Structures are given as structure tokens and as C-alpha cells.
Known about the structure:
Elements: E1 4-7, H1 14-23, E2 31-34, H2 45-54, E3 56-57, H3 61-68, H4 79-87, H5 90-98, E4 102-105, E5 110-113, H6 128-133, E6 136-137, E7 144-145, E8 155-156, E9 166-169, E10 178-179, E11 183-185, E12 195-201, E13 205-210
Parallel strand pairs: 1-2, 2-3, 5-9, 9-11
Antiparallel strand pairs: 1-12, 4-5, 6-7, 6-8, 10-11, 12-13
The protein binds manganese (II) ion (MN).
Amino acid sequence: xxxxxxxxxxxxxxxxxxxxxxxxxxxxxxxxxxxxxxxxxxxxxxxxxxxxxxxxxxxxxxxxxxxxxxxxxxxxxxxxxxxxxxxxxxxxxxxxxxxxxxxxxxxxxxxxxxxxxxxxxxxxxxxxxxxxxxxxxxxxxxxxxxxxxxxxxxxxxxxxxxxxxxxxxxxxxxxxxxxxxxxxxxxxxxxxxxxxxxxxxxxxxxxxxxxxxxxxxxxxxxxxxxxxxxxxx
Length: 233
Ligand SMILES: [Mn+2]
């Protein structure tokens, strides 16, 4: 039976992506989807984009940023973004411009998005800002906060989302994959020296490989054994 393998944010971690594909035994009959944020932070941006071009990806906020900065001068870019720009050609930016905000997997009652959604709206009606950025929210307000900067009455979006689809997402780095009834978060911070994670459908098996990058500090969402996921450090 053919599988769908969804892989979390690469951020230039190409070697780990190949190791993960090998670890899950990916073949040409498997469908492979990346959750966006292929670029920035890690060492092999071009390779990651070209890997995604051979498979499928959604748009991440980092691809969006490079599209927004497309006409900005080199000297006006963040050094990390400049390094990425130098590794890419116009064909890669054109590819970013073609990427969807979500990919539906109706056969699994699932949808792949980059960041998050607000409750009570179909995926097609979601604000693209939330699809690319949502973390801690207070519906129906539009505002979203980084976990470490969220006021106490803002909660991580998965605490509100009640489906009907199970959302597979990246963007927020967790200390281990987040698995709830209606959400599966698979960004485990490879670019920060943690792990790269995939979820394999239809079994929903989670597979991770260790990062080869040096350990770097980042906001990491620590998931408690019970309760919501608003425990961050
Ligand atoms: Mn992101």
C-alpha cells in the first residue's frame, strides 16, 4: 500500500532529510510532503528546496519572507537570509510562489499546514496569516504570539481546534512530537540541533532522526504528559 510521509521543517537540514527518508524506507510509490520552512538556519538550503521540488511542499513563513524580500538589496537582509538568497536562484523563488498554503489528505481525514488554524472555520476560510504563523491565540482575535511572549490568557491553537480534520503542522518547535486527537506537530527543531521528524500515513507512525547541527538555543514548547501544551521554556 502506498504511504504518505509528511516531514517537518527542514531549515536547510538536507542530510537529515535523506537519513529520515532512508529510515522510513521511502520508495517512489510513497507520497512525500514537507511542512514548509525548507530554508534558513541550516547549511544546505538549495539542496532542501530541490528535494522538495521533486516531491510536495506547502509554503512556510520563511519562504513567504524571501518572496516579500525578493526586491530588497542584499545589504538590507538579515545575514541568515542573505546566505539563503545566495544559495538560491530565481527558479527557487518562483517555486516558492507556486506553493499552496495547505494540502488536504481526505483519505486520512487530515490536512497539512505550516503553523496553525483558528477554530470554527474551514481550512479554505482560514486567514493565511494564521496558516503561516499561528501559535498562541485567543479566538476570535487575529493576534498570535510566540509561546515565550504570549499573555497568560492566550493558549496554543491546538487547544481550540476541534477538527473535523486532523491538522499536521510544523513551525513551532516541540521537545517531542505533539500528538492530539486533532493535531500532530512534527517540528522537533532539527536546525537547533534536536531532531527531524516525520509522520507516516496511514499508520500515523512517528519517526525521528537526530540532527547533525550544533545545539542552538530556541523557543521550545515542552509538552506535559497531561493537559494543554502551554508549557514553554
Ligand atoms: Mn515557520
